[in-house]
Amino acid sequence: MGQSESFTSEQKALLEPYVTNTDRSVFVLTNLPEVIKGALFSRYSRSTLGLRNLLLKEFVLSEDSEFREIQGNSGKTTSRESSELAIERARKFYDRILDGYGDDSIGELGGAHLALENISMLATKVLEDARIGGSPLEKSTRYVSFSEKHDGRYRYYRDPKLMDSGYAKHYTRACDHLFDSYVKLCDPIWAHVRKLLPREDGTSEAAYERSVKARGYDLIRGLLPAATQTNMGIFGNGRFFETLIRKLRLDPLQENRDLGQSSFDELSKVIPSFIRRADRNHPRFQDYEDYTNFQKGLLNDFYSEKFSIESVPPQDMEVRLVEFDTNAEDRLLAALLYPFSHASLQELLQKLAALPEDQKKQLIQEYSKLRLNRRDKPGRGLEMPFYTFDLVGDYGIYRDLQRHRMLTQERQLLSTSYGYEKPEEIEEAGLGSIFDDAMLQAAEVYENLLKDFPHEAQYVVPMGYRIRWFVKINLRSLSWLTELRSVPQGHTGYRRIAQQMYLRVKEVHPTLADLMKFVDLEDYPLGRLESEVRQEAKKQSL
């Protein structure tokens, strides 16, 4: 490591609250608001000074920065009110630094943790669509019951437009019926699961019961409407939040527009300089709004005028491979060999095209053997081949798979057109009619809402109804997705999707499919439960 900058004892005393060391070349910033860290790094990219020297001279000792007012003399923040006042006064100073010394990427150097509570499951998907720069975590439908009421009402979103319309009673009646059915099915479905998998000797009752309930919630989650309220947390950088807020502000649903405003208000207290362009009055936002509206109008008008597609909606899960690279093996090997060569990519591709197929196949097979488990990630060369899938699965499955980020995906609006999934265990337990009745009533209300409220109608659609979406994904990311989502303890629904994606690739590229060597094609109706029992028993022993 290179020699670090040196500081006097007085300078060290000033710096020590804000850095983990003052005498080594690798250190971490501490006790600094995000706006200061972002501005500091922004200046850092255009300065010959080390970061600690820059912090000392242009921030700690600078009167313009109001650093002392924000931080106090001890490295700890002052009262909330005075700190917010100081940040507001210093905001123009930091904006000037960010505008003068940084570009959009500087917004990635400061971040925040945002909590969003009592938001609909429909809203969570819009929040999770913005994948790059943000890390979301959502309340599980598997470990948490959604049967609790608040002030005598089930927790689901009541859209103002719907509640002010003549459909209000129909909407609430359908949602209440879905939740009533969810509650009604809990005890009998747990009893059925216990019957299918009795508790083994040596398994603690607490671990077993938790596992039974988790499996039961998996089976009945299809009854939960998209309006079901949940909680989620997001850690993101400033650039991520700026993009997300702008998108939310222009969403057709009132809930998402409200979330955009609330997120802007709260994040402005922490990272104001990074999200200022998401303010409705900012010129950049006006440009973004015009562009977004023109774009939507252009595509919607074109589709309406030029297309008249009357296809028969699938009434089952569907996995179609609609596009793939015909020279995928050569592309993969060229990328893997590239770091060991001084040839151009084009030259490598030409050489590989002339190489006998059996030699290329042998290299791929030997490369595959190097992986000992699914956490041994293959090299970046696997990012060269791409596959595009058109998928139909229930909304619960989509919610699970949507969280994979290294891919391109787009979904259609929720509807009841593609039918719904009903776990066979529900029928076996004699609960099928209760399930069907609630699902069909929700579908009837959805159809009535659709004409006047095409976007708001989605709220009443239960998670068990199917949705169509497409995914374009490279082989490396597909390998991770299919291996992870086919493990025995995975949900039955997304295990089927993952298995079928693997099999579609195997049909066109059998050699490359061998690289996805840890995809599990077995059927484990109760595999998830058995895994839970083992995990819970392990927790009990700690």
Poorly predicted runs are: 73-78
- CATH architecture classification name of the largest domain: 2-Layer Sandwich
Number of domains: 4
Total beta strand runs: 9
The N- and C-terminal alpha carbons lie at a distance of 41 Å
Average predicted confidence as pLDDT: 88
Describe the global form. Answer: globular
Helical proportion? 40-55%
Oligomer: single chain
With strands numbered from the N-terminus, the spatial order across the biggest sheet is 6-7-9-8
Give the DSSP E fraction (strand runs of 2 or more residues).
Answer: 5-15%
Please report the first level of CATH classification, the CATH class of the largest domain.
Alpha Beta
**Taking Cα atoms only, what radius of gyration do you get, to the nearest Å?**
27 Å
Count the DSSP helices: 23
Structural class: alpha+beta
CATH level 3 topology of the largest domain = Gyrase A, domain 2
Biggest sheet, in brief? 4 strands, antiparallel
